[in-house]
């Protein structure tokens, strides 16, 4: 319980520190929008040429893509930053800080 | 010159340091390659497809995918990431004190990484491609042209990344590499060849250097590009190199001035 509360505090702090730089946050959001658009666009390019991938139509592929995005969004919200930074901390030796 | 060779060697050795990272990376590359092969197989089993620029067969497409992943191992550079780091934590100051040209130094760093990738990542894919997938082999002339465009592609990729890395002098946040990565996925023909694109996207791709990095070398390898177009593409590559070189020089000069003002 204590760990949970502590984690929540850390989440709060991280989100606040991210929102502190408004322009940066906006650009980050914009980049994610571009990222997803490019994903959609590539799928559309492929399926406008071929109609279906072994019976999966454009709509169904989009649905799968979205489900995947929601899942990775939820997991990413909680775990992505430490996982992404872990190897850097390790190789630079800054793990000893914690 | 000697010191730069040393830099190349050091960065090559860095690649050797983390063995598990290497295996995981190679495994990841292979999985992505297999997924792509599966998708194209599903799409093209019904037979060749007619596109705006000719007929595409399954064999051609598998070759495309394998070559594309091979080029991909040489073109994933962390130049932007590195530079961002250096500029953010102030190491750039030490780099400036050293009697080396920072651009050449960064380039040597990338060359060392590339040699590592060539030996340990590209060659395995090539072996798998030749033995298990059965890729097409080009004519000697096409292969030589392919090599020229590939080397140019590496240089352009470096310059582009370097220019975007320099942006960190003004704006510290590592979004540039993400942008390159995103646009690269679509407009370079890394995953989907430009043959399948609707005209509007092809037109957009003509304004970006990304097309020259994957699509052009692979087209030349496959021999689907007319000789005159090859020539134009190589000229375009040199033009981009010149433009980017000039740009990075100007940016560097401005960046150094800014850095001095901050320090003073």
Description:
The complex is a heterodimer of chains A (98) and B (264). Chain A is mainly alpha-helical. Chain A has one domain. Chain A is built from three helices and two strands, in the order H-H-E-E-H. Chain A has helices spanning 2-20, 22-50, 58-92, and strands spanning 52-53, 56-57. Chain A has a two-stranded antiparallel ribbon. Chain A is elongated. The two termini of chain A are 21 Å apart. The mean pLDDT of chain A is 80. Chain B is mostly helical and 264 residues long. Chain B has one domain (2-263). Chain B has helices at residues 2-17, 19-44, 58-75, 79-89, 91-97, 102-133, 140-166, 175-187, 199-206, 215-222, 227-263; strands at 49-51, 54-56. Chain B has a two-stranded antiparallel ribbon with strand order 1-2. Chain B is globular, with a radius of gyration of 20 Å. The interface between A and B is medium-sized, with 18 and 21 residues.
């Amino acid at each position: 319980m204590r760990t949970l509360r502590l984690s929540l505090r850390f989440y709060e702090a991280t989100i606040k520190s991210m929102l502190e730089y408004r322009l940066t946050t906006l650009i980050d959001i914009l980049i994610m929008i571009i990222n997803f658009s490019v994903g959609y666009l590539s799928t559309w390019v492929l399926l406008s040429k071929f109609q279906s991938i072994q019976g999966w139509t454009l709509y169904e592929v989009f649905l799968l893509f979205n489900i995947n995005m929601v899942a990775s969004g939820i997991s990413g919200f909680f775990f992505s930053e430490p996982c992404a930074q872990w190897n850097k901390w390790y190789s630079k030796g800054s793990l000893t800080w914690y | 010159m000697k010191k730069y060779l040393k830099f190349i060697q050091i960065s090559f050795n860095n690649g050797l340091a983390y063995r598990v990272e290497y295996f995981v990376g190679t495994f990841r590359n292979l999985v992505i390659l297999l997924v792509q092969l599966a998708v194209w197989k599903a799409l093209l089993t019904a037979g060749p497809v007619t596109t705006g620029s000719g007929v595409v067969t399954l064999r051609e497409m598998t070759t495309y995918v394998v070559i594309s992943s091979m080029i991909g191992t040489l073109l994933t550079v962390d130049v932007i990431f590195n530079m961002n780091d250096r500029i953010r934590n102030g190491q750039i100051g030490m780099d400036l004190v050293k009697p080396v040209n920072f651009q050449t130094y960064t380039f040597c760093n990338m060359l060392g990484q590339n040699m590592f990738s060539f030996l340990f990542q590209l060659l395995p894919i090539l072996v798998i491609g030749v033995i298990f997938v059965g890729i097409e082999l080009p004519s000697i002339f096409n292969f030589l042209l392919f090599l020229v465009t590939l080397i140019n592609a590496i240089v352009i990729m470096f310059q582009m990344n370097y220019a975007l890395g320099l942006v960190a002098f003004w704006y510290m946040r590592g979004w540039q590499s993400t942008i390159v990565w995103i646009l690269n996925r679509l407009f370079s023909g890394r995953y989907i060849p430009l043959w399948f694109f609707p005209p509007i996207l092809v037109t957009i791709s003509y304004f970006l250097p990304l097309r020259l990095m994957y699509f052009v070398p692979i087209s030349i390898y496959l021999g689907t590009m007319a000789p005159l177009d090859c020539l134009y593409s190589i000229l375009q590559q040199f033009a981009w190199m010149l433009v980017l070189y000039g740009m990075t020089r100007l940016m560097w000069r401005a960046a150094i001035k800014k850095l001095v003002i901050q320090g003073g």
